[in-house]
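Before relying on records like the one below, remember that each one covers exactly one chain. Contacts with other chains, cofactors or solvent are not represented anywhere in the record.
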Amino acid sequence: MTTRSRRDQLRDNLNRTREAIAAACSDAGRTPDSVRLIVVTKTFPSSDAATLVELGQTDLGENRDQEAAPKAAELGAAGLEPVWHFVGQLQRNKAKSVAGYADWVHSVDRAPLAAALSNAANAHGRTLNALIQVSLDGDTARGGVPVADLEPLAEAIAAAPALVLKGVMAVAPLGWEPARAFALLNECSERVRRTDPGATEVSAGMSGDYREAVLAGATMVRLGRNVLGEREPMA
């Protein structure tokens, strides 16, 4: 159960975050509704996620299936149906589970994973919105397809029966200026749109660099501590 003080804290943080995104949009000459806020609830309890939905926050993100699946089930049992975004690295053996609750998968970075997600979504009678995670610096240890291999993966996703190619996602590489990273991601977005002109989404920007991401054209920002506060260290 969420205490009144925690609910008030989440409401205030959510309002401040939305106002900050709106200000970044204004600086970029964009309207606030051109950027979707995804609140990443990883490590925080289901009660926080439920409260956010009750406060009108539609989009929630998670990056580990072992946490996301029970959280989605708990909210569903309570009659709450947020739009779930899976934003973390994903192994094929988790595709069946993720396809059961996620509406968006931001981290599709190889054709075998795309095939596994499509097969799993089809088995669930669902379709998934898929974003290609791009490794902007080529270090695929953190997830992402190298920039040079972008088009073949876009074609594989576009051809997958239960996936809808929606665009690209990236995390700014360590040591890179965010503006450089997001400019390259925009180039990747243009290349993906040659495969599917409807793949216009750009998921970029986290707590430390979302303003630069909005200036560079991001349509989704993935924020956690701005709304939920500092996380406890992962076990």
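Strands lie at 36-40, 59-62, 83-86, 104-108, 128-135, 145-146, 163-169, 201-203, 220-223.
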